[in-house]
Amino acid sequence: MNVLNEENLFAQLKQEEPNLLDSLKKLVRIPSVLTEDKTPYPFGAPIQEALETTVRLCEELGFRVYIDPDGYYGYAEIGEGNEMVGVLGHLDVVPPGSLENWETHPFEPVMKTGKMYGRGTQDDKGPTLAALFAAKALMNMGVTFPKRLRFIFGTDEETLWRCMNKYTQQEEMPSYGFVPDSSFPLTYAEKGLLQLQLEADNETALSIEGGSAFNAVPDSIVYQGEDQELLVDALQELSFPFEEAENGVKILGKSAHAQVTEQGINAISLLAIALHHIGKSTKSIDFIANEIGEDPYATSIFGNCEDEVSGKLKCNIGMIDIGQRETISIDIRIPVTVDKEEVVQSLINVADNYSLHYKEVDWLKSIYIPKDHFIVKNLMEVYQEETGDTVSEPISAGGATYARAIENAVAFGAVFPNRPKVEHRPNEYIDLTDLFSAMKIYAKAIYQLTR
């Protein structure tokens, strides 16, 4: 790769570390969860505040900036030339879930044991700012950018990607780039992401509501209704964790990102199984208890659905709402070589047995960038040179990143091999040593890609 003055780069990166931390604290304090409020902003006032705060920071750092008048996205750019390199990050976060599972407040950043705790520290405010301040360190060195470098800030990544849909309709697209929203060394394949709802009229008196997002394994759900004592007996018999709640029973699961559904315990599934066990029946309850149960792969519906590149299909019940209508909100991660329509038809065939109707909410096609592609080879070279890690291979993942939004892009960090991924979980944090290491890798990557 091109020669870069290591000593000067290290000095400039060290100088920017306190600024990175201060900026990250400000962003974490903004609870940028999708909000339906009376403001004119598409995703609510908190997300708009996060977007405006980030764009204003970029302007102060010396970037040319733009913010979409409708509030869907913003970007910051430096450099010259016809060709553009993109770095894409998102400013929205998933809901924190039950606050009692947090040791500190999710939107009040806390520094302890070499980590910063708070929602968004790992996903994706911390890595996005690390890449931004990496570019700032290069700017401080007087590095010029013969290709334009554009940071693109999305605001709806955790839900429906309406931000990137709007960006691609209205703006110039990068020729290639990376997304600091996954793991090192890099992610070259991402499963197809299908979000859907199964719906029906509720013909019973049962009423249940729980879960917070399609892509988060629900860590708890409260049942308030008839036969609570019978439910408690069933939970004990099934060895499902629970606790008494105000006027109800709280079933306890374990949160996880939907891309690693098997690492969580789905509280909605546990409740459905227990209710079915005591004879409580609705279309949704019966479907979940009979067809999915505790199986994160939904094998009874999809069979052994997997491929060599990206592994098994993952199925997560993220939310349930049983009122006048029954609605199950489901997130499915489809292996990159598997046909989406086959998966959908398998689900429809089973759902029809319960008079549940399929409604597609969102679909993000899979990506697969071969390992000999220039972006993979360049970023692997940067990663290996900086870390000395020549063992770790490019990986495939079930997560959906903005790498799908542009051509010739991969997810690149910021979680290092053998480090825990705590995104979407209580007590989310970023390890500061790793954050600063990622910043140095991003600086070298940006330098290399803009040459």
- The tally of domains stands at 2
Spatially, the strands of the biggest sheet line up as 1-2-6-3-7-22
Strand count, sense and barrel status of the largest sheet are: 6 strands, mixed
Uncertain runs are: none
GO molecular function: acetylornithine deacetylase activity; dipeptidase activity; metallopeptidase activity; zinc ion binding
Keywords: Dipeptidase, Hydrolase, Metal-binding, Metalloprotease, Protease, Zinc
Cofactor: Zn(2+)
Family: Belongs to the peptidase M20A family.
Structure description:
- The protein has 451 residues and is an alpha+beta fold.
- The chain has two domains: 6-190 and 367-449, Zn peptidases (Aminopeptidase, 3-Layer(aba) Sandwich), CATH 3.40.630.10; 192-364, 2-Layer Sandwich (Alpha-Beta Plaits), CATH 3.30.70.360.
- It is 32% helix and 24% strand.
- The protein is built from eleven helices and 24 strands.
- It has helices spanning 6-28, 45-61, 125-140, 162-170, 228-238, 267-277, 283-292, 299-302, 340-351, 374-387, 432-449, and strands at 64-67, 73-78, 84-90, 110-112, 115-117, 148-154, 176-179, 182-183, 187-190, 192-201, 208-210, 220-223, 242-245, 248-252, 306-307, 311-312, 314-322, 325-334, 357-364, 367-368, 395-397, 409-411, 414-415, 429-431.
- The strands form seven sheets. The protein has a six-stranded mixed beta sheet. Strands 11-17-18-10-19 form a five-stranded antiparallel beta sheet, with helices on one face. The chain has a three-stranded antiparallel beta sheet with strand order 4-5-24.
- Strand 17 and strand 18 form a beta hairpin.
- It is globular and about 70 Å long.
- Its cofactor is Zn(2+).
- Belongs to the peptidase M20A family.
- InterPro entries: ArgE/DapE_CS (IPR001261), Bact_exopeptidase_dim_dom (IPR036264), M20A_pepV-rel (IPR010964), Peptidase_M20 (IPR002933), Peptidase_M20A (IPR050072).
- Keywords: Dipeptidase, Hydrolase, Metal-binding, Metalloprotease, Protease, Zinc.
